[in-house]
Amino acid sequence: MISLEKMRIYIKYKGDEDYCAHATHNKRTIMEDGDFFKIDSLLQDIELAEKGLITERYLRSLSEKLSELCDSSETISELKRMAKL
Question: How far apart are CA 35 and CA 11, in angstroms?
């Protein structure tokens, strides 16, 4: 589950999972296998959606994926904010 705390770690390490691997044990245990990939993938999909480059069907699928993978609406909002940068 993607959370705001995981998003902060992602931002701190600029999306670099290898760099994060050298972090303290606490940060490594917060991030689960695949979290960096999931965040990268969601950011890319949101960016494509913002540019109108995906179908309505894929947009619905993205909305469902965001609800499944994120722990709160705040996390979804943060992902959408980051995708615009």
Answer: 12
State how far the Cα of 49 lies from the Cα of 33, in Å rounded to an integer.
26
Residue span of the structural domain in which 21 resides: 4-83
Contacts within 8 Å (CB) and 24+ apart, 49-53: 50/80, 50/83, 50/84
Write out pLDDT tens, residues 44-83: 999 999 999 999 999 999 999 999 999 999 999 999 999 9
What is the structure's pLDDT at 79? 97
The number of folded domains in the chain is: 1
Between the alpha carbon of residue 13 and those of residues 31, 68, 72, 75, the distances in Å are 12, 24, 22, 18
pTM of the full predicted structure?
0.87
